[in-house]
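Quick one, probably user error.
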């Protein structure tokens, strides 16, 4: 699904976001984010020069997998797995494989 409005639209306007993902983007974050069951998917700007941390070797996509749908944190860190990549196709596969049933 192509979004046409929202905070940080420039981060994801080139992507077909699955319709099951809920847009959790917030203006005070440095990039867009989406929620799907026990996952939060962060999407940064495609062009590194548009990113807040352009000098770091960070991937465009960051996925947090929580152990439950309750989204519990321990010491400000997600309980579960994390995944970084520059491939949106890999994000889709990873989220599909790891969502809480």
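Nope, works fine. Designed sequence:
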């Amino acid at each position: 699904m192509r979004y046409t409005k929202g905070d940080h639209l420039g981060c994801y306007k080139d992507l077909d976001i699955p319709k099951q993902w809920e847009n959790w983007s917030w203006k005070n974050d440095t990039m867009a984010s989406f929620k799907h069951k026990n996952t939060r998917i962060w999407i940064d700007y495609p062009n590194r020069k548009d990113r807040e941390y352009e000098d770091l070797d960070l991937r465009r996509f960051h996925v947090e997998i929580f152990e439950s749908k309750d989204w519990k944190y321990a010491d400000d860190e997600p309980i579960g797995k994390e995944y970084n990549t520059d491939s949106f196709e890999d994000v889709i596969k990873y989220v599909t494989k790891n969502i809480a049933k």
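The chain has one domain: 9-98.
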